[in-house]
Amino acid sequence: MQDITKQDVAESRAQAEKLLDAQAEQSKAKRPQGHGRSERGLDAVAYQPEGFGRFGRMFPELARARFGDTLPQEQAIMNAIADTMIKRGDTGAPITEEEPADENPKIKAGYTYFGQFIDHDITFDPASDLDRDNDPNATQDFRTARLDLDSIYGRGPADQPYLYNPDLTIKLGFDKTPAYLKGKKKLFDVQRAPRDESGEVDDEHQDCPRAIIGDKRNDENNIVVQIHQLWQRFHNKIMLDLARPSTEPGNERPGITGLAAFNTAQRKVRWHYQWVVLHDFVRRIVGDKMFHAVYNGGKPKLHFYKPEDAQYPFMPVEFSVAAYRFGHSMVRPSYSLSAEIPHQRAPKNKLDRLPIFKPDFSCDDVRSLNGFRPFPPGWGIDWSFFLPDVASDLPEPTAELPFDQFVRPQPAYRIDTMLVDPLSMLPDLRNEKRPDRKSLPSLNLQRGIALGLPSGQAVARRMGLKPLTDEQLWIDQGNLDDDAAKARRDMFTENAAQLHENAPLWYYILREAELADAVKTDFEDEDEKPTSQVLGGSRLGGRIVAEVLIGLVVADNQSYLVQDPNWRPTVKDMSYQGTRFELSDVVNYVDS
Description:
Blueprint: H1 6-27, E1 55-56, H2 71-83, E2 86-87, E3 103-108, H3 110-122, H4 150-153, E4 172-175, E5 188-190, H5 224-243, H6 258-286, H7 288-295, E6 315-316, H8 317-320, E7 334-335, E8 354-355, E9 411-413, E10 419-420, H9 440-450, H10 456-462, H11 470-475, H12 482-494, H13 496-499, H14 505-516, H15 539-554, H16 560-563, H17 583-591
Parallel strand pairs: 1-6, 2-10
Antiparallel strand pairs: 3-9, 4-5, 7-8
């Protein structure tokens, strides 16, 4: 890169600001949905956290990373990086086969979508239609940066009564239980909008019935909507338990109903949810060592995330736009929902899984897990396919359907710098012409430069860590196959002037996690140690994720850590030392 004068920098910055303003104006008429949509308020990020629910920065003193003299140059480099982050043509293996090259045996697939559910909860915006994603005047993108299940409860039964039954349980949709689980478990769709019955809209122009829930993003795919439904049913089960009189010694009481029961149930549900997020999800994702270093026995040590510096908890863009997007690398290209879906209904290979996305949206599609539509009969998730420690009796195996050989629960994919092919072509709900606007890695990297994130190396130095070298970031094989590694090296060589000691923060975090547990193998040696990436392998990304999620609970004066630090989950016997309460326990309680 040629020497740049102060005048050049000023002119380039003015040009970038002009282009960003133009993009913001264009976005008002044309906005992405689902994974392609950013949160409202992101384009008005505060350099000092202030106000309620405002996006802020963990490291406001760090300069933004620059990858070119102009914004188009920076965007081109982000696209070049993104092109090296897609595993082309990978549709996933049949349900009877393990995938040691890609799978992380320590983290199961359910946690990928529980992580997505958490993201939607802490960036919930009930005051907007969620399309106002690039509003430069927005100062708030969510009502509460708290783990309080706003996505489940919405604005409550007084303001959104259509979410609730008269007894203040949450309305559910049709029964979708697979045939082999009927009589043992119940699995439901969420409540959905009815058809237009005016007679003035023909069938061709009827909208696909959308979910009537507190946050429409939780209808993005067939898995996250069932995580949502799980927590709705958890609330309903607690409401039913409260309605029964208790004769437990020391806890005798009459049955509780009405608003008193609702308020009690909401607090109990939120506290169990906070516990699962911290003690199961965070601990599982960042690893025991990082979790204990930050959680510190319930007296958290927050070195970098300082929610007390703001009037209310704020959402750091280093977390929301970079560190927390680690989950995108955990997405599998395809999943099995149960022993019945798709296996007993598959027209050809009965052992194939369903792809997470198909590019074309279809309301009655039965060959993908696309969301924003009712899921077909029998599509309720058998959670033994997604979570550990969930019991489920499968049908008797046959030669055609060897149920005893099914891989259960399905593992998540590794946390690394490779994303599955379907994420390079997201479902297009707005006829997007630019391919990079359909590619999730490109969208993530573009968002990083638009929000002015610092480089991974700058954040590492600020946190007192030795930064990864260019060799480690771009040249080392890591967990890439030979072709992918060569493409990555070639890309770096072409853009070395811009990427020298200057990696995008999101990419840096994924690469650090990848290298921390890299295993060089052709994956044909059965004796080779399997990979088991956790974000704790990324001391930078793991610390940010742990501090923010734990910090949000600390900063919430209604959380269990503030109200009752010695509280333990109550729907499971926690009297034995070492007993854990995890997401699978929520499933088991609901099914009990």
